[in-house]
Amino acid sequence: MAKTAIVTGGTRGIGLAIARQLAADGFQVVIVGTRGKESYSDHFQWFEENGKEYFFVQGDISNHDDRIRIVKETVDRYGKIDLLVNNAGVAPKVRADLLTMSEESFDYVLGINLRGNMFLTQLVANRMIRQKKKGMIINVSSCSAEVSSTNRGEYCVSKAGVSMLTKLYADRLAGEGINVYEVRPGVIRTDMTSKVQSKYDKLFREGVFPIARWGTPEDVALAVSAFASGKFPYTTGNYVDVDGGFHIQRL
To answer: Is the pTM of this model over 0.85?
Structure first.
């Protein structure tokens, strides 16, 4: 029987690439998006053309009732959850200096990126514990978990928090047979980075990134696929940088 994976924020960019890769790997994929399915019909064409099993659930992970419904609809459809990929995330609506950032922006970003992740994982973990065959959780964070950007501090704080959630849940769930991992994308060509393309193009030209190109959503999806393969059974709480070597400190 095929394994079931939930991918939050799975309707575009990194999340959609992850959903496609997992489907290609043989998973039946539950794709979570905030708008109605008709808004994403073009995005799902690949699954239909390639005969891949998928199921769409509309929901906002920052909403308590939506989180419950995401889990319920998945279990009603497939009877189990083998993998949760916490990919959904937002950037601040306005990039503001740390000294002028609003509380509303902080609450908005952390409500989705951190709080939503925390409590959806809690629900799924409890469901996995009750299953005969346990599962796996993979968090998609960011190089911003470590790298300071003072004009989007709320985003950095949220991703640093996701890194700690990875450690906390890895620690708590290891005894339950559930491994937890983290993938840290760097500069990936998505809608989120399109607004600052010239900035990053310049950094690539200047050699800031050892692998001097934009990352792609597919690069991130392959890292998720590697963890999801189950070929790292004696590991948990680990992370991998998908950033073209940006994390390397150089003199």
So the answer is: yes
